[in-house]
Amino acid sequence: MRSATVERRTAETQIRLSLNLDAASGGEISTGLGFLDHMLLALQRHGRLGLEVKATGDLAVDVHHLVEDVGIVLGMALRQALGEGRGIERYGEASVPMDETLVQVVLDLSGRSHLAFAPEELGIEGSAGGLNAYHLREFLRGLCNHAGLTLHLRLLAGREAHHVLEAAFKALARALYQATRLTRPDLPSTKEVL
């Protein structure tokens, strides 16, 4: 099975995350930050992932460190679980509506890190459970940098933070599921390496 468990401890956060790309959706999520738990459960459910996260952080300071570091650890686990990437679909794309909101995520498990997401240009308003568009960007940046993932996020409609963040996590989940499916015998690259 394609799985990994990663632990990361810093002066700001302590995280243990287990990821299984081939297991049925499930696993305990506990970060001490309710809205982040909700988003990780959405990632687990809509990405059909075995995902367990136990994390603590310096929430008395701010939510930033915890959110960013969970993205980093998820990226590390994804990279380990994929191994060399033999057989994966590689590309994934999903658009997810949530009431007035529509978010599109397009990604490539290329081994090259790139995030195309500029919150200040999207005009996302407010926060949800202490998280705003900039926290989403930092989560995604950590994920992309440590997974070797190229990701484009587009907000096609909507501005309200709760709906935008939730639609973004669900679109990410669906695109990741698609990209990580085993659909071929070889590496999906003319370079013969990801």
Main sheet: strand order: 1-2-4-3
**Backbone shape:** globular
Strand fraction equals: 25-35%
Roughly what is the average pLDDT, rounded to an integer?
96
Q: How many whole angstroms does the radius of gyration measure?
A: 16 Å
Order of helices and strands: EEEHEHEEEHHEH
Which stretches are low in confidence, meaning pLDDT under 50 for 5 or more residues running?
none
What is the CATH third-level topology name? Ribosomal Protein S5, domain 2
Distance between the termini: 20 Å
Strand segment count: 8
Q: Total domains, how many?
A: 1
Query: How much helix, percentage-wise, in residues?
Result: 25-40%
How is the main sheet built? 4 strands, mixed
Compute the number of helices. Answer: 5
Fourth-tier CATH superfamily name: Imidazole glycerol phosphate dehydratase, domain 1
Structural class: alpha/beta
CATH architectural designation: 2-Layer Sandwich
CATH class: Alpha Beta
Task: Give an account of the 3D structure.
This protein is an alpha/beta fold and 194 residues long. The chain has one domain (3-180): Ribosomal Protein S5, domain 2. Helix content is 37%, strand content 27%. It has helices at 34-46, 64-82, 119-122, 133-147, 161-180, and strands spanning 3-9, 13-20, 29-30, 50-57, 91-98, 101-108, 114-116, 150-157. The strands form two sheets. It has a four-stranded mixed beta sheet, with helices on one face. The chain has a four-stranded mixed beta sheet with strand order 5-6-8-7, with helices on one face. Strand 5 and strand 6 (101-108) form a beta hairpin. Helix 1 (34-46) packs parallel to helix 5 and helix 2 runs parallel beside helix 4. It is globular. The mean pLDDT is 96. One of its GO terms (biological process) is L-histidine biosynthetic process. GO terms for molecular function: imidazoleglycerol-phosphate dehydratase activity. Its EC number is 4.2.1.19. It is found in: Cytoplasm.
